[in-house]
Design a protein that fits this description.
It is built from three helices and five strands; from the N terminus they run βααβαβββ. It is α+β, with helices and mostly antiparallel strands and about 120 residues long. The protein has one domain. It has a five-stranded mixed sheet. β4 and β5 form a beta hairpin. The chain starts with 6 loop residues before the first strand and ends in a 15-residue tail after the last strand.
């Protein structure tokens, strides 16, 4: 039997003057120190590049992160864990759950394989 699928949650671009995401990122990426979080956020803002907010998250956590980001006017990109942000367009996309996944048969959430 396959292990449940987990996801990484990204923001495509974080505006320099945009809302803060430190708390959301800190709640999800607990292995990072506050200094590491701030460095990643600063890098994302200065490079206008993607920012990994939650890593290896169960599907329920993806929903929580998305909700908190929507409240701040930000959109999240959910990608099956362990795949780089840049490769998302070469992956399959589920329209129902708005996520990118590596399989060719069906979305892991639609198929009941998303980690709860």
């Amino acid at each position: 039997m396959e292990d449940p699928t987990t996801f990484d949650v990204w923001i495509e671009r974080l505006r320099r003057d945009g809302p803060t995401v430190e708390d959301i990122m800190g709640d999800s990426r607990t292995a990072l120190t506050r200094l590491q979080l701030l460095k990643e956020i600063a890098r994302s803002k200065s490079e206008q590049g993607p920012l990994l907010l939650a890593q290896d998250a169960p599907w329920s956590k993806v929903g929580e992160v998305r909700k908190r980001l929507r409240e701040r006017g930000l959109n999240a990109v959910a990608i099956q864990a362990d795949y780089p942000f840049a490769e998302r367009w070469s992956m399959s996309r589920c329209e129902t759950y708005d996520l990118f996944y590596a399989g060719v048969l069906e979305c892991p959430v639609c198929g009941g394989r998303g980690a709860p």
